[in-house]
Design brief:
The structure is a single chain. By secondary structure, the protein is mainly alpha-helical. The protein has one domain. The protein has eleven helices and two strands; from the N terminus they run αααββαααααααα. The chain has a two-stranded antiparallel ribbon with strand order 1-2. A hairpin with a 2-residue loop joins β1 and β2. α7 runs antiparallel to α10. The protein is globular and about 55 Å long. 39% of the residues are buried.
Length: 274
């Protein structure tokens, strides 16, 4: 195909700009919807901060051994709560939101509008990703101000990459998980029943060194443990170099790809509880 033929098949710049405006408009609506909901604000922003303060207060800010070397409790818990924040915004909240909107008919009505389906999906994913990034930034800043937890500049790019890959993977998994939940009332208890045990066996609340080998092996099967490992590596004082956790990021990406495939296969815009 010649260059002129390729150019003819590409959408004009005005059409591409129109798509960007559509996503931006829908994104603004979805962000306002979250920020104007007191319950959503609490579970999105306040609860992770409460967990950080509670865990550090409960166990003190002394040191314990992780991966064979001593580390302050606060330095361990800041990346752990960042993991919780990413999972909460990109997976837990998103699954609940998708299920509620689908079963109440909102998704079906939106699908019937002239707005393309991909715009609605992109907006929901971007909303979750933005909230995850903002929440992580808040936790890192609070950890620095309150507990003196330091994130080295050399590992900052690896930490940001971990947050972005984690948010993208869990957004894909959220669309996949929502396709298996048929009732909006059961969405929250089902998801919480799945994710809360994973927090404990993935090193978020309890260091892996304090878990049995069996629990560690089970936790390592799931993506929460790999997100936590990737973010912790950026804070770990023993880390040298860039702090890039390549294996953990690849496993996260594989989980996200699997979630995307399932979502494309099973996702429905119509209520499923009938």
């Amino acid at each position: 195909m010649s260059t002129s033929e390729v150019a003819r098949h590409q959408p004009p710049p005005s059409a591409r700009m129109s798509d960007v405006r559509l996503v931006a408009h829908q994104l603004r609506y979805d962000l306002l919807l979250v920020l104007r909901d007191p319950q959503s604000r609490f579970f999105t922003f306040a609860l992770p901060v409460i967990f950080l303060i509670l865990l550090t207060s409960l166990f003190g800010n002394g040191t314990h051994f992780v991966n064979g070397h001593a580390i302050k409790n606060s330095t361990y818990y800041v990346p752990g709560i960042c993991t919780l924040g990413v999972v909460a915004t990109s997976f837990v909240n998103l699954v609940i939101t998708i299920t509620v909107q689908r079963e109440s008919g909102i998704l079906k009505r939106r699908r019937s509008t002239p707005v393309p389906a991909w715009v609605l999906i992109a907006s929901r994913v971007l909303t979750s990703a933005i909230l995850a990034i903002v929440l992580v930034a808040v936790i890192v800043v609070l950890g620095r101000i309150i507990y003196g937890v330091h994130l080295p500049g050399s590992t900052l790019p690896a930490f940001v990459l971990g947050v972005v890959v984690g948010a993208a993977a869990f957004c894909c998994l959220a669309f996949a998980a929502a396709s298996f939940i048929r009732n909006e009332d059961s969405a929250q208890p089902i998801i919480q029943a799945i994710i809360l045990p994973l927090y404990f066996i993935s090193g978020v609340f309890v260091p892996k060194d304090q878990l049995s080998t069996t629990l560690q092996d089970i936790g390592n099967v799931f993506p929460v443990a790999h997100l936590n490992s990737a973010l912790f590596k950026a804070f770990d004082p023993a880390t040298t170099g860039s702090g890039l956790a390549g294996t953990d990021l690849l496993i996260l990406a594989a989980w996200g790809m699997g979630g995307l495939i399932i979502a494309l296969w099973r996702f429905s815009w119509s209520p499923q509880s009938s």
